[in-house]
Automatic annotation (TrEMBL), chain A:
Taxonomic source organism: Nonomuraea terrae
Cross-referenced InterPro entries: DUF742
Protein name in UniProt: DUF742 domain-containing protein
Domain of life: Bacteria
TrEMBL record, chain B:
A GO term, aspect molecular function: GTP binding
Top-level division of the source organism's lineage: Bacteria
Similarity comment: family membership: Belongs to the GPN-loop GTPase family.
Protein name, entry field: ATP-binding protein
Organism classification: Bacteria, Bacillati, Actinomycetota, Actinomycetes, Streptosporangiales
Keyword line: ATP-binding, GTP-binding, Hydrolase, Nucleotide-binding
Length: 116, 193
């Protein structure tokens, strides 16, 4: 995995201003990202940031955002941190699965799995 | 656009929920295959760029040190309905990526530990890991061709597993088989032994 074209990495470096880690929270891979309704993105927003805003009009977990952007999770987190600081997205810290899965969700998951 | 806003108090619909399930086990045991068999999306290879964390990154120099090591993270998705998903994460096999396990395991519903009967010891670290943290897991014995169909009790004894932990013989290339493993895990994680 090393020795590849360094171009994309250098571009990534620019995208995040060299930050490989987000400031503040280490967003969980399944934290839910939602574009804030009616938010006005600044004109100079980068394409990746715009892409997140479009994607997350329907709530999406961080892992999905990274996959859609085809960017590493760390880089995606930096972008998400930026967007949140600008008030453009909300990022909901997930609670442990054991606390969020009630009887109804449990049934839905089992039925869903069985009908795959 | 009628999308739900993220501001508290303004959302009318149930909050979106993504449930994490880990797929762990030794090198080449079938983790990626399992995720790919059941995922509705091609197993995504989200590359995690390692930064300045102490992970014993190969010796490099200068700024490159921050960004040259990557580890592929398998990830697959099962949509139950809009706003309710299961996410499967294949854990990285190499020891030096343990720190990623901690992040992945946080808040997870549970884990599937895949085992290959020809080298059962390879899944010891994963079993230990989940046992120590009290994360519910089931053991999936991946029945490779040529491997004898093992007696689950033998596997249990060899792994020193608590009698309550489910063991499922599986073929991770088969959808039905992977479904069985996952329903077993979900049931066990929610209802307990
Ligand atoms: N015959 C047989 N082959 C399998 C089975 N499961 C996986 N394989 C093969 O075993 C090889 C390794 O499978 P992977 O799914 O890549 O294993 P992995 O655990 O992701 O491997 P690493 O990520 O390298 O640790 C692949 O060539 C698979 O096609 C199985 O049930 N039967
Ligand atoms: Mg793999």
């Amino acid at each position: 995995m090393t020795g590849e074209d360094p171009g994309p990495l250098i571009r990534l470096f620019g995208l995040t201003g060299g930050r490989a880690r987000p400031q503040g929270e280490m967003f969980d891979l399944v934290a839910i990202v939602t574009t804030v309704f009616g938010a006005r993105p600044p004109a100079d927003l980068q394409p990746e940031h715009h892409a997140v805003l479009a994607l997350c009009r329907r709530p999406k977990p961080v892992a999905d955002v990274a996959a859609h952007l085809r960017l590493p999770v760390n880089i995606t987190r930096v972008i998400l941190g930026d967007l949140r600081r600008e008030g453009l997205v909300g990022i909901e810290r997930p609670r442990p699965a054991a606390q969020t899965i009630d009887e109804r969700i449990y049934r839905e998951v089992l039925d869903g799995l069985r009908s795959l | 656009m009628g999308y739900a806003a993220s501001e508290p108090g303004t959302t009318a619909v149930a909050p979106a929920l993504a449930i994490k399930i880990l797929v762990a086990g030794g090198f080449g045991v079938g983790k990626t295959t399992m995720v790919g068999t059941i995922s509705e999306i091609r197993p995504l290879h989200t590359e995690e760029l390692l930064s300045d964390r102490g992970v014993g990154v190969d010796d490099t120099s200068g700024v490159e040190e921050k960004i040259t090591t990557t580890v592929a993270l398998d990830f697959g998705r099962i949509t139950i309905r809009e706003g309710l998903w299961l996410y499967l994460f294949g854990t990285p096999g190499q020891d030096r990526f343990w720190f990623m396990w901690d992040e992945l395991a946080l808040g997870a519903l549970g884990a599937v530990v895949l085992a290959d009967t020809r080298r059962l010891q390879d899944c010891f670290p994963a079993v230990d890991y989940f046992e120590q943290r009290g994360i519910p897991f089931v053991v999936g014995v991946n029945c490779f061709e040529g491997a004898r169909r093992y007696d689950p009790d033998k596997v249990r004894r060899a792994l020193g597993l608590n009698p309550s932990i489910p063991i499922v013989l599986c073929d991770v290339r088969e959808r039905a088989s992977v479904k069985e493993v996952l329903t077993t895990l979900v049931t066990y994680a929610v209802e307990g032994p």
